[in-house]
UniProtKB/TrEMBL annotation:
UniProt keyword terms in alphabetical order: Membrane, Oxidoreductase, Transmembrane, Transmembrane helix
Protein name according to UniProt: cytokinin dehydrogenase
Record's subunit section: Monomer.
Top enzyme category: oxidoreductase
Lineage summary: Eukaryota, Viridiplantae, Streptophyta, Embryophyta, Tracheophyta
Length: 645
């Protein structure tokens, strides 16, 4: 295994490309050189040799350089030596006799040994050699090294792709050296075992789920990206008092939902958008309108199968290897790669009653949201968003199939007026009496303080409700607005700071030209396990509620009037940074799906939890191989963080 993996690591250097050529030359040398080929073999380096001898040392640039030079000279020397091979075809018998004393004319040996090779056979041999030479040269071309997949032993590392170096944010594009498409957990274990044992300082590994990160979190500059979607996606279900599904870390939540609905089940806690992977959201938290009731997705996992940074395959839970289980949940991909997860399921409702109410007052808006999350027995989902302009009113209605007759005055550019929308949902089970649901919604909304008559409700299938963002995606895709820059900022804000945060936010945006959505909704602290790696705001108060605010901005570089160039993108990112820093400093807010350009920023982000996080890293990924895209534990030059140019 060691040799095979040595070859994998070699993909990152040209010297190792040369190894490929040398391997081919060694392999073909008996045909090219005849019986005394072994003389020439001795001058060729042995492929894989530098790795074998480098357990504790490293593939330093110097040794790589020596190796390249050695390989080049040896290979070319060998190719030049082939010239005399054609001699016998044109030489006289006398020449041949003379040449028998010459040690560097191997085909003479060949001819003498065989003696009876006919002229036709010799021509055939020459042709074969020419073909083989062409083959060798084509294998040696740099183009070939970059373009062709390279199969080295048990793992098949592939050349990088544009997908592996990009994400939804379209802000950073860090190219890895190679991509692994694992066919099993063992493939990932093999890779990480080797890398951690070899102490190769520069090779890092990032698991890539659906690549819906914003700031290159699933990228690995010059490292290896593991495409989690390649893992077999079979889902196993258990239906009982406690129902659950065992699912691959690379599977999408939509796949799990579709399969479980066939059994009348569904995950208890989902994200708004379902084309995200199980491992990707569990590495963050996974939140949505159900979080106030069931907690984030990381609170709804019974067991994980993880490959640690050391390459160990561990099945962990709250009762077995608890430290690893807690570390990985919300662990930003730093401690291990989630290959399987056991996700809690509940009985799926048949439909939902989906309600939206509009507000012109922020205080009334948040008060009603807090009222709704205090009624978990009656309410199943609570979210909300800011209505900044006509466009945001229109785009938020794409998936909501009611005839919304809300035409507010958005004011002038100098004195804009903004509005808010609360949305909540009540599950409708097949056995539920429809009148009872109508009654429940009336009772709930009767306690709310929205703008008079601005409450709308619709009944939709449970699947359509959960998959609502897909409709928005399709609409954005059709107008070319999906694959644009996404300078997003998500913050957890303590309840006491939410008014201050709103002011800070409104000072930093112009409502009239904001493209995108600003989500605001409350979460309840006691639904979060503080032993996991997730970071929440620290407050001295006993307030259970805190808010998540998602500034989900789109910046279209191709817009004919407001096209957002690199400069504009940089400015938006700086503005978000200012909001994030001010909110963290003054209001005790913390970023969700955080991005910090320096390790110091990450330390401040973790606050008093930093030590535990760093200890977990030292324990489960001591070589700092995993999750380089987060920039928390940089190693060598690979850890350098780049800002968009
Ligand atoms: C349109 C859209 C809607 C979204 N809606 C929500 C939402 O409602 N709620 C919410 O909470 N989030 C939401 N997100 C954010 C989303 O949860 C995160 O970006 C998440 O990381 C995306 O998952 P992914 O599979 O794309 O992960 P990736 O972007 O591929 O990876 C994210 C991080 O997790 C690591 N990682 C990936 N897979 C694994 C694994 N198997 N094991 C260990 N580490 C791994 C990566 O290395 C990286 O550090 C949304 C994002 C988008 C683009």
């Amino acid at each position: 295994m060691e040799v095979a993996l040595c070859r994998h690591e070699s993909l990152t250097t040209i010297g190792n490309g040369m190894m490929r050529m040398v391997s081919v030359l060694r392999l073909l040398s008996p045909i090219l050189l005849g019986p005394n080929h072994s003389v020439w073999l001795s001058i060729l380096p042995i492929p894989g040799e530098p790795c074998r001898g480098m357990h504790s040392s490293k593939l330093s640039s110097f040794s790589a350089l020596i190796y390249i030079v050695q390989s080049f000279s040896a290979s070319f020397y060998l190719l030049f030596l082939m010239k005399p091979l054609s001699k016998p075809h044109i030489s006289s018998s006398a020449d041949r006799v003379q040449n028998t004393h010459c040690v560097d004319t191997p085909s003479i040996f060949l001819q003498e040994a065989t003696g009876r090779i006919t002229q036709t056979m010799e021509i055939a041999m020459v042709c074969t050699r020419v073909i083989l030479l062409i083959l060798i040269l084509s294998l040696c071309s740099p183009y070939k090294f970059i373009q062709s997949p390279m199969d080295f032993g048990p793992l098949n590392l592939l050349p990088t792709t544009t997908t592996a170096s990009s994400d939804f944010g379209r802000i950073l594009f860090h190219s890895p050296s190679a991509v692994l498409k694992p066919q099993s957990t063992r493939d990932i274990s093999l890779l990480l075992s080797f890398l951690s044992a070899s102490s190769l300082d520069k090779v890092t590994v990032a698991a890539r789920g659906a690549g819906h990160s914003i700031h290159g979190q699933a990228q690995a500059l010059d490292g290896i990206v593991v495409e989690m979607s390649s893992l077999p996606s079979a889902i196993e279900f258990y239906k009982g008092d406690v129902s659950y599904a065992d699912v691959s870390g690379g599977a999408l939540w939509i796949e799990l939902l579709e399969q479980s609905l066939k059994l009348g089940l569904a995950p208890r806690s989902l994200t708004d958008y379902l084309y995200l992977t199980i491992g990707g959201t569990l590495s963050n938290a996974g939140i949505s309108g159900q979080t106030f009731k069931h907690g984030p997705q990381i609170s709804n996992v019974l067991q994980l199968e993880v490959v640690t940074g050391r390459g160990e395959i561990v099945t962990c839970s709250l009762t077995k290897d608890e430290e690893l289980f807690n570390a990985v949940l919300g662990g930003l991909g730093q401690f291990g790669i989630i290959t399987r997860a056991r996700i809690l399921l509940q009985e799926a409702p048949h439909k939902v009653k989906w309600v939206r109410a509009f507000y012109d007052d922020f205080g009334a808006f948040t008060k009603d949201q807090e009222l709704l999350v205090s009624m978990p027995d009656s309410v199943d989902y609570v979210e909300g968003f800011i209505v900044l302009n006509e466009r945001s009113l229109h785009s938020s209605s794409i998936a909501f199939p009611a005839n919304v007759d809300f035409n507010p005055d958005f004011g002038a550019m100098s004195s804009p007026k903004i509005y808010y929308c609360v949305e909540f949902a009540v599950h409708v089970h097949q056995t539920t009496n429809t009148n009872a649901v109508e009654h429940a919604v009336r009772v709930i909304s009767g306690q709310m303080s929205h703008v008079a008559s601005q409450l709308y409700s619709v009944e939709v299938s449970y699947f359509d409700f959960l998959n609502r963002v897909r409709m928005e995606e399709m609409s954005l895709r059709s107008s070319g607005l999906w694959e644009v820059h996404h300078p997003w900022l998500n913050m957890f804000v303590p309840k006491a700071g939410i008014n201050g945060f709103r002011d800070l936010l409104m000072d930093s945006i112009s409502p009239d030209n904001f493209e995108g959505l600003i989500l605001i909704y409350p979460l309840l602290r006691h639904k979060w396990d503080t032993n996991t790696s997730v970071v929440l705001p620290e407050t001295g108060s006993t307030d259970q509620a805190m808010y998540v605010v998602g500034i989900l901005r789109s910046a279209n570089p191709n817009h004919p009037v407001d096209g957002c160039s690199h400069r504009c993108l940089r400015e938006l990112l700086l503005r978000h940074r200012h909001v994030a820093d001010a909110a963290a400093g003054g209001l005790g807010a913390k970023q969700y799906l955080a991005h910090h350009p320096t390790p110091g920023g990450w330390r401040r982000h973790f606050g008093r939890r930093w030590e535990r996080f760093a200890e977990r890293k030292a324990r489960f990924d001591p070589q700092r191989i995993l999750g380089p895209g987060q920039g928390i534990f940089p190693k060598g030059s690979n850890g350098a963080r780049m800002q968009p140019s």
